[in-house]
Each structure stands twice: as structure tokens, then as C-alpha cells.
Design goal:
Helices cover 89% and strands 0% of the residues. The chain is an all-alpha fold.
Length: 85
């Protein structure tokens, strides 16, 4: 998970620099999923908070950009994270 997270963070930086919104949204969702997996392995509640923050940022981007199909995935993941907290 560490290598995947690093790769996604790098991709996210490049996407922000180039205003590539689809990559930003997908990377944030995947980073939140990694936080969820890490939480399931370690039970560290800070990871749920981190994932929720990423999902909230992603939700805002999806609303602003009218990414409705992605927004469905965001709501599902947000609900899952909230149920675990």
C-alpha cells in the first residue's frame, strides 16, 4: 500500500499542477480507499478521519464539475467510512 500511496500522491501533485480534475478525483478516491484498508489492518481511527477528509474534498469537486457518476461512488464510500467511525 505504501508504494501505491506514494504513486498516487505523485500523480495528484501533477494533476493539480495541470488542472486535471478527473485524475484528481480518481486519485483522491483511491487514496481514501487505501486509508480504509490501512484502518482495517491497524484499527487507527485517524485513518478514517483522513479518508473522510479526502472524500469530502472529492465530493465538493464532483459537485462543482457535475461528475454525477463519480459522485455516486463518493457517496457510497463516504457512507461506508461513516458507518465504521
Amino acid at each position: 500500500l505504501g508504494e501505491a500511496s506514494k504513486f498516487l500522491q505523485d500523480a495528484l501533485e501533477i494533476a493539480y499542477e495541470n488542472n486535471l480534475l478527473e485524475i484528481i478525483v480518481n486519485a483522491k478516491i483511491q487514496l481514501a480507499e487505501i486509508d480504509l484498508l490501512r484502518y482495517r489492518m491497524t484499527n487507527e481511527s485517524i485513518l478514517i478521519a483522513n479518508a473522510l477528509r479526502k472524500i469530502e474534498d472529492t465530493r465538493q469537486l464532483c459537485i462543482e464539475q457535475d461528475y454525477r457518476l463519480v459522485l455516486i461512488d463518493v457517496f457510497i464510500l463516504q457512507g461506508l467510512l461513516l458507518s465504521m467511525n
